[in-house]
Amino acid sequence: MKFISALTSVLLAVSPSALADSFSYSLSLAPEATEGSGFGNSLLYSQGGLDLTVSAFSDVRYEGTLSAAQVLRYQTGLGVSNPGEGVNSGSPQHQLDNEYSWDFMLFEFSGPVDLQSLRVDPFGEFDRDVIYFAGYFNRPLDLLGVETTELETLFPVYGESFNRPSSEALTVNLKADGVNTLLIAGPRQSGKPDYYKVQGIKGEISPIPEPTHATLLLLGGALLALRRKRAC
After folding, report:
1. What does the chain look like in DSSP terms, one character per residue?
2. Which of 4, 5, 41, 100 has a CA between 20 and 30 Å from the CA of residue 111?
3. Nearest residue to 131 (alpha-carbon basis) of 154, 153, 161, 108
4. Residues 205, 208: Cα–Cα separation, whole Å
5. Burial letters for 40-53: b for 16+ Cβ neighbours within 10 Å, e otherwise?
6. Is 99 exposed, middle or buried (0-12, 13-18, 19+ CB in 10 A)?
7. How many other C-beta atoms can be found within 10 angstroms of the C-beta atom of residue 230?
8. What's the average pLDDT block by block, 10 residues per block, for the chain (232 residues)?
9. What does the pLDDT read at residue 189?
10. Cα 36 to Cα 39, 112, 115, 170, 229, distances in angstroms
């Protein structure tokens, strides 16, 4: 009886549920913690044991390299102020934008996630185009001084969503599985500028891979052989 109980425990232990826990961060809400208040600051959100740290960078005046920027929280989401605009910049520059400088927002999760969507909301009527980079890195990821031309090489995942100008909020679908880092921006400015705040982000915690059927059969066979050997 003890052997059967042990066998059952082992099989259950190596057969985790395939269902993943979902998450949905509302970034207009107050974060659990903040670090700093000016350029280089960050906001910490937490949900169900998964932490999310948000920070900002900018290619100031399109000089080609990333500098520390300021991430700011408003009633409709998170925006960015860069050194070319000054701390706590006014409207519309308090949003993530790409008109005079190229703003980026960095999301770092405490574990691997499958990203599904991002919600952006412009303050005014603007383009709402989004490009994103994603990957799995040792945290925190230091982007200071990184050249913007190197981002597609640095991040293994790249995606884009081009949308018409509007004052309405927009959900952008993301395709990035098993990552812990997401970097978003408007595309490099070449026409109408993009301006928006980031309202929220959704996805699932990446599930632990289940053992294959063959693996379970081998394990069961090994334990059954062990039982017969003990019975002899």
Report:
1. -HHHHHHHHHHHHT---SPPPEEEEETTSPPSEEE-SSTT-EEEEEETTEEEEEEEEEEGGG-SB-EE-EEEEETTEEEEE-TTT-TT--TTTTSEE-SSSEEEEEEEEEEEEEEEEEEEE-SSSBB--EEEEEE--SSSP--TT-BGGGHHHH-SEEEEE----BSS-EEEEEEEEEEEEEEEEPPPPSSSPBEEEEEEEEEEEPPPPPPPHHHHHHHHHHHHHHHHHHH-
2. 41
3. 161
4. 9
5. bbbbebeeeebebb
6. middle
7. 8
8. 46 49 97 97 96 98 98 97 96 95 98 98 96 95 97 98 96 98 92 95 83 49 52 56
9. 79
10. 8, 26, 27, 30, 64
What's the confidence (pLDDT) of residue 179?
98
Q: Look at residues 58, 39, 158 and name the one whose alpha carbon lies nearest to residue 102.
A: 58
Return the residue matching tokens 């005079």.
100
Residue 59 pairs in a beta bridge with 102
Q: Which tokens is 4 given?
A: 């059967």
What does the block give as tokens for 30?
A: 């107050």
How far is it, in rounded angstroms, from Cα 182 to Cα 108?
Answer: 7
- Whether residue 68 contacts residue 101, with contact meaning beta carbons closer than 8 Å, is answered with no
In residues, how long is the chain?
232
